[in-house]
Design a protein that fits this description.
Elements: H1 2-35, H2 41-52, E1 58-68, E2 71-83, E3 87-94, E4 102-106, E5 109-113, E6 121-123, E7 128-130, E8 133-134, H3 135-139, E9 147-153, E10 156-157, E11 160-169, E12 178-184, E13 190-196, E14 202-214, E15 217-227, E16 233-244, H4 254-260
Antiparallel strand pairs: 1-2, 1-16, 2-3, 3-4, 4-5, 5-6, 7-8, 9-11, 10-11, 11-12, 12-13, 13-14, 14-15, 15-16
Amino acid sequence: MATSVVIARTAPRRKSRTLLLLLGALSIMASSATAQPAISAEEILRRADAVRFPQEAFEVGVDIRTTVDGKQTCKGVYKVLSKGNENSLVMTLEPATERGQILLMKGRDLWVFLPSVSQPVRLSLAQRLVGQVSNGDLARANFVGDYTPKLVDAPTVDGTPLYVLELTAVDRAVTYQRVRYWVQQRNYWPYKAEFYSLSGRLLKTCRYEEFHRLGGVIRPTKLVMVDAISQGEESTLQYSDMKLRELPDRIFTKDYLKRLQ
């Protein structure tokens, strides 16, 4: 009888110790989570933009090839001068029939200068430049400032942990009205993007590939844009010869461009 009494009194004490240990472990986990807050959607987007392009003024060459069912239909070669996300020049080098054509972006205003026309022509950032590539894809390539980001998912794809951002355009002047953007968690490398119209229709997808050192940083040097409406059509953008440059503000003016023609 004495033994049974001892057991009856000891069991609740052991349960109590176990409960205290469990509560302590949960407390440590909670404080650890508080000490390391999740990264914001804005910071993810900022870091991914810094991977894609320098924050300083730079020059880069872009070779664009468009194929339909694997057969090349057109090719364009361009030189891009960019200063921040507000000033850009896109100069056409090929094809020869379009050589001398220049896109000038100031803020979200875009003009095209044609050798055969004395006055610049106003264009939309969303208007097609060549193949699946819009004017804004070259002239205004960063997302920060043009979109309000929201972190909507954090899946693992093929063993790679990703962030998924939903980007909503700040106004109708930007290139796309909505973007769904996948970014690698480990290094903030862009993974892929889906571009949507104002009505919510998927226009095209983009894959970021061939990460190499470009302009002193590992960046995606190849972008593959696939038409979501016309099956079998895609455009490949190949970036090369990136270098930081001093670009005075006067370069990004209509008067200065007249000297280049």
